[in-house]
Amino acid sequence: MTHAAAHLVGHTSPVGARWGSALFALCTSLTLGLAGCAANSPTATGPQVSSQQAVTAQGLTPPALTPQAAATHNTNGTAQNHLDAAKVALKDRHYDVALQEAQAAIAVDPQSSEAQWVLGNIYNQRADTQTTPALRQQDLASAVTAYQQAINLNAHYDAAYTNLATVYYKTGQFDNALQQVQQAIRLNPGDAISHYVLGTIYLQRDPKQYPDALSQALTEFEAAVKNDPHLGAAYTGLATVYLLKSDYVKALQNAHKGVELTQDAPDPFVYWALAQAQSANGDKAGCTQTIDKINSFHLQDSQFNQQVQKLAQQCK
To answer: Given this model, what pLDDT does residue 299 score?
Structure first.
């Protein structure tokens, strides 16, 4: 099964705590199944997720149910109508409508693992728009419950494991996130988004404690690109790794590719990777132009804006 890229939003970047400003290029919140890193959110931070690369949770079908689950699974036309409406509303970021439709689908068909997955996606994505930590935490807790219910109904639902990993990632539970996405890859080794999410988790690891973390991240981002050459977030991930490895030529190549593939849904953090790569390669004019592009997003993220302004001074 192919689920949409991660939505990774969130306005704090735990990634930077390990490796520094380079990791701001990755979306911080991975909200998989919603469509790719940043595609769904111009204010994404980090490896959305979360995913995008950015698509949305539309038209996605969970993997085949086990025979036991299939025996009790009731495909109901009315439930599917509600589910389709929930996906459309989620794509348009009408979260209240999406929530009502997903809950209606579950009321009609309580055995629908896909409905629980979509419900989890709604809470997961809405959490990144909440204005208080309490509301954000409440949505993330609800997302965990929904994804776990989807897995209970269909233990082979790889997208549910991956999206559950993004919630754990957002809350700093990196070991739990790692376990969930590794299970997703065991179920579906060819899923680009899962490899991308795993790469971002490896970048959260302390390089002193895990000296192979950077190489592991590189391997996962390469696997993501191999399985989906159009996943822009994966190229941004590669650019970030190469920046950290001081391979600035490859960093620039991959940063340009990430920007190219996200033109339909521009993301400031994708441009941030490009600006850093341009600066590292001595392209002050290009760096200044890219920073102007970043500033045009008018992000309300003081930590990120400080990093941008610091780089702007270096590019003069």
So the answer is: 87
Q: Please check whether residue 5 is in contact with residue 39, taking contact to mean a CB–CB distance below 8 angstroms.
A: yes
Q: What is the pTM of this model?
A: 0.80
C-alpha separations of 53 from 7, 64, 205, 234, 297 in Å? 9, 25, 24, 8, 19
How many beta carbons lie within 10 A of that of residue 298, not counting itself? 10
Dihedral sign (CA 257, 225, 262, 132): negative
Strand ranges for the chain from DSSP E: none
At residue 240 the predicted structure's pLDDT band, cuts being 50, 70 and 90, is very high
Domains plus CATH for the chain?
Answer: 16-248 (1.25.40.10)
Phi/psi class of residue 130: alpha, beta or left (left: φ > 0; alpha: ψ in -120 to 50)? beta
Element (H, E) at 238: helix 232-244
* Token digits of residue 170: 């957002």
d(CA 105, CA 2) in angstroms, rounded, equals 22
Tokens of 236: 């941004």
What DSSP line would sit under 99-114, residue for residue? HHHHHHHHHH-TT-HH
- Tens of pLDDT along 40-63? 322 223 333 332 222 233 233 444
Residues 6+ apart with CB under 8 A from 178: 165, 198, 201
